[in-house]
Design goal:
With 107 residues, this protein is mainly alpha-helical. The protein is built from 6 helices and 2 strands.
Amino acid sequence: MLKAHADSQHDPDFGRLLPDGRSYRVVPTEPVDTAWHVSLQHTEPYAAACQQIAGGFVHHVPILTEGMADGSSMEYTRQALTATGYYIDPEFWDGEAKSCCPPNPGI
């Protein structure tokens, strides 16, 4: 996910917009979001992995967007994941985008 996020940042026509106008590229499924939260609790190794894989820190933005709700964001995510060349484990990526927060968290 970190690699897909980093690689897709260079394509201005790829992804969706957040309510505040910033773009986002990849969204997690529920099992991936759970693993991401665990990783975020260990900031030093997470920051080092982000730097090595993505070239900088990948922030967690707890949102629920229309694209996540209607499934269209997962299509962008699968494209970005596939483009990395890494194996995409269906156990973790066949599903819907999930948010760890309620709709409209105030951003």
